[in-house]
Design brief:
mainly alpha; 67% helix; 334 residues; 14 helices
Length: 334
């Protein structure tokens, strides 16, 4: 039955109900195809819109991850006719490998002395850029320049700066009466040099992310705190840091993932050392050792086992950092 309504035109008129066909009888359970299509559109369209990302992730992210786990259970060598199944032998051999543990300690050492100062300096730099500086746009763009520059070029330049005989850093140390440092041969100092490269590249990038979050904090919160007599330092620790919590968690988690996967800086720090990370592997990271095992020794099964152990370590450290950051930032103790 066709429904006909007389509607008054003009302001104050009641909205016109949707037109219904003669066979559109919702009350009796008989729905038109257009009504069914509309319901399907509302119900499933959001999933269709986000599906391309997950399909792409499954192809280029999830499949390699699972295939790496599969390869890690075999004695998989490039060029071999057969790849015999060895179970968890690659994992047990890896856990007894002293070179692997040396690489793991090197990775954590470089990660600690690069990520912690990097995040602290990024927050302080963002707070400085958030003040009324002259030419603020220029300063804000300037801190991003190290990130824009080529990583290979930066690594070669820093490798020259930390040279033993003609490096500028040693020349400056001599001006202050200090001894020259063999940055590539000594384990601790090689970590400091590599961490300096990492901090130079990523501090400005993280500072801009924190700055964007700082500018989203409502101004009236600071005005109320100022009226109550809170100093700038008090406002920073009691207002700014707690309200930056989601951004700080993001920065710390991404810095953790990147810091534990460091590869290019130690590889190019001394081109003659290559993937060995020095004569005694003094700055060889886990990813560098994985590259050496997989593509130089051509033992893909062993390298795949290493990749999975590193994956588990990264997930654990990122989770711990997430919990610590959320707790410290929420209590305002950071």
């Amino acid at each position: 039955m066709t429904t006909e309504l007389t509607v008054t035109r003009g302001r104050g008129a009641e909205p016109r109900p949707p037109r219904r066909d003669d066979n559109d009888d919702i009350g009796s359970g008989k729905l038109s195809w257009r009504y069914r299509l509309t319901r399907l559109d509302v119900k499933y369209s959001p999933y269709v819109y986000i599906a391309p990302f997950f399909i792409l992730f499954a192809v280029v992210g999830l499949f390699p991850l699972l295939y790496t786990a599969y390869i890690s259970l075999f004695d998989w060598e490039l060029g071999a006719d057969e790849q015999p199944f060895v179970g968890i032998e690659n994992y047990t051999e890896l856990l007894a490998d002293s070179q692997f543990w040396t690489a793991m300690v090197n990775t954590f050492s470089i990660f600690a002395i690069s990520t912690i100062p990097q995040v602290i300096i990024a927050v302080l730099l963002a707070a400085l850029l958030n003040t009324a500086l002259r030419g603020r746009t220029g300063w804000r763009m300037g801190v991003l320049l190290p990130y824009v520059a080529s990583l290979v070029a930066l690594t070669i330049i820093f490798g020259d700066l930390f040279g033993v005989q003609y490096g500028s850093v040693n020349n400056v140390l001599e001006l202050f009466g200090l001894d020259r440092i063999d940055w590539q041969a000594e384990r601790w100092w090689s970590h400091v040099a590599i961490a300096t490269m990492v901090n130079w590249r990523w501090t400005g990038y993280n500072a801009l992310i924190v700055l964007a979050a700082m500018q989203a904090i409502p101004r009236d919160v600071y005005e109320a705190a100022w009226v109550d007599g809170a100093s700038k330092v008090r406002q920073f620790f009691s207002i700014t840091l707690p309200m930056l919590r989601p951004t700080l968690i993001f920065v710390i988690v991404t810095s953790t993932i990147g810091g534990l996967q460091i590869f290019t800086e130690p590889l190019l720090f001394s081109p003659s050392a290559g993937a060995n990370g020095g004569a005694s592997h003094q700055y060889q990271t886990v990813v560098l050792y994985m590259y050496q095992s997989g593509f130089q020794s051509q033992d893909l099964g062993y390298a795949s086992a290493m990749a999975w152990i590193l994956f588990i370590v990264i997930i654990a450290i990122a989770g711990i950092n997430f919990l610590l950051t959320r707790r410290l930032a929420s209590s305002g103790e950071a």
